[in-house]
Specification:
single chain; 357 residues; alpha+beta; Aminopeptidase; Elongation Factor Tu (Ef-tu), domain 3
Length: 357
């Protein structure tokens, strides 16, 4: 693996559900040390300020630091763990999956247990399990006191237990937490490149906290940065698997996604045209895409202050919000290049043109 792949591996294998992202923040601080002034907002978002040749425009590149997971609700008398979801989970993606509970004594591995469908009537085999009936088995057995020996407490965070792997196709990577450690990695790599280039603005690299539970860090970090232009780098669906059929632009390996519609974001058409023209001029592989539902930090940042020119930059990802998602390395590299070129092109004159109504 090259240095970029090693960074990706480190980020995705670090546990950090919403509200517990401090270890991811520490990686950002380490990677961006010496590049610019680093500070945090009071929700835990990490902000790195990189000064250029002008104090305006203020450009923000943001990837959210949290991943989806669970928290401990209670430990039953028998020693099984009842839990609550943090972020969006489909119950059918959970049964039999391995997880890791972070306790003050250290990590505890468990498996999500469920009512075995083979014991049910055949007509019930294809039913999704009831999320409320799932539990975590940490190795319960006679003579082993889970509460005493493992010290698992309500509120302890739980994350998928999955490893980063380069697939047989070496351009494809599989791991947990691409949502949104890939956005964090794009931000880090872009900031490193920009630190070596002259840019006509101030660039803020941000790892926003608690996106999966309401775009919370986008609001607080946006208030701290007060950007003129913001790019939220996040995953988008890869509609290239057999269940989707043909005709979709959002595919792994199609380059960086310029997302023109998604959730609560209503994209400024001048910013849309500027970014499409830039990608074409710089010969950056890209597609123009949409998402049918959901939202990203861009939508929340857009309505901060008196308004922000905001755009959602997508990385096509297969099987998002599961234990094992797949991305294409070329799409990541294209996203980094696009963010660098955008920051090099966004001067005060361009900003005035973009915000002219």
């Amino acid at each position: 693996m090259d240095a970029t792949a090693r960074l990706l591996k480190r980020l995705v294998e670090t546990d950090g559900i919403s509200g517990f992202e401090h270890e991811v923040g520490a990686i950002i601080r380490e990677e961006l040390k010496g590049i610019g002034e680093i500070r945090t907002d009071q929700l835990g978002s990490i902000i790195c300020e990189l000064k250029g040749s002008s104090a305006s425009p203020r450009v923000m590149i943001v990837g959210h630091t949290d991943e989806i997971g669970f928290i401990v609700q209670e430990v039953t008398e028998e020693g099984y763990i009842k839990f609550l979801p943090i972020g969006g989970w489909k119950p059918q993606n959970l049964a039999g999956r391995k997880v890791r509970i972070s306790t003050r004594k250290g990590p505890v591995v468990g498996v999500i247990g469920f009512e075995d469908p083979w014991d049910a009537d055949e007509k019930d085999w294809n039913k999704s399990p009831d999320l409320k009936k799932l539990y975590i088995d940490v190795g319960v057995s006679a003579g082993f006191d889970v509460k005493k020996d493992l010290d698992i407490r309500p509120g302890d965070p739980i994350t998928p237990a999955s490893k980063f792997e380069v697939m047989s196709n070496p351009k494809m990577y599989v791991a947990k937490a691409w949502d949104d450690r890939i956005g964090v990695a794009v931000m880090i790599e872009a900031m490193k490149h920009l630190a070596k280039r002259k840019h006509p603005n101030i660039v803020f690299g941000v790892g926003s906290a608690q996106e999966e539970v309401g775009l919370r860090g986008a609001k607080t970090s946006g208030a701290e940065v007060r950007p003129d232009v913001a790019f939220a780098v996040d995953i988008c669906g890869a509609f290239d698997t057999p269940d989707w059929g043909k005709g979709h632009l959002e595919k792994a390996g199609s380059g960086v996604g310029l997302m023109v519609h998604g959730g609560a974001l209503f994209l400024n058409p001048r910013l849309r045209d500027f970014m499409i023209d830039l990608a074409e001029k710089k010969k950056i592989k890209h597609f123009v895409g949409t998402i049918p539902r959901g939202g990203t930090d861009a939508g929340r940042i857009q309505i901060g202050g008196t308004g922000v020119l905001a755009m959602y930059i997508g990385i096509a990802t297969r099987y998002g919000h599961t234990h094992n998602s797949i991305i294409h390395r070329g799409d990541f590299d294209a996203a980094v290049k696009l963010m660098v070129e955008a920051c090099l092109a966004l001067d005060q004159k361009t900003l005035e043109q973009l915000k002219a109504f």
